[in-house]
Amino acid sequence: MMDVTDQELDRFPETVVAGNAELSEARRSFADWLTALGVATGRIEDLLVVFSELVSNAVRETPDGAEPATVCAAADEAAVRLEVTNVVDDGHGGSIDHDWDLDDPLRSGGRGLVLVSAFVDDVDVDVTEDRLVLRCLASR
After folding, report:
1. Which of 10, 14, 57, 117 registers the highest number of CB atoms within 10 A of its CB?
2. Nearest alpha carbon to residue 82 among 6, 14, 5
3. Contacts of 9 (CB under 8 A, 6+ apart)
């Protein structure tokens, strides 16, 4: 996956999102951050679709009583990198089991990633026993 360089990096701080109220506030903060970076209005709208899709899914999929989802981002002059993390272990040794084949239109679920893929340059899905980390890289 391409990466945002560490040179002249601007960061959107890690934000905890436990529910819809936090999602709404985090989305506003992300939009303000993108605006302050000088990202074009149309591109901000695209990135807000990506933000909303990934974070709302992370909030919905986090088991009750688990750590809330988190989101953070970084940017340089060329790109924005967005990272969303949530717990997927149900507390009983269960873990996430998904087919991440984004090219199969008949797959069950995962269509949000197809939508996200339309707005970004690269999507990376990292699944461990208890965490799902989604990383997107989008040109500015």
Report:
1. 57
2. 14
3. 74, 75, 76
Do 48 and 30 touch, CB atoms closer than 8 A?
yes
DSSP states of 86-100 as a string? EE---SSS-------
Rounded to whole angstroms, the maximal C-alpha distance in the chain is 46
pLDDT tens figures, 85-102? 998 865 544 445 455 555
Look at the alpha carbons of 138, 19, 130, 114 in this order and tell me if their dihedral is positive or negative: negative
> pTM here?
0.83
CA dihedral in degrees (89, 22, 45, 1; nearest 10)? -30
Looking from the CA of 65 toward its CB, the CA atoms found within 13 Å total 4
What does the block give as tokens for 86?
A: 């949530």
Could you please report the per-residue DSSP string of 97-127?
Answer: -----TT-TTSSS-HHHHHHHHH-SEEEEEE
Question: Does residue 73 contact residue 13 with C-beta atoms inside 8 Å?
Answer: no
Answer whether 126's CB lies under 8 Å from 133's CB: yes
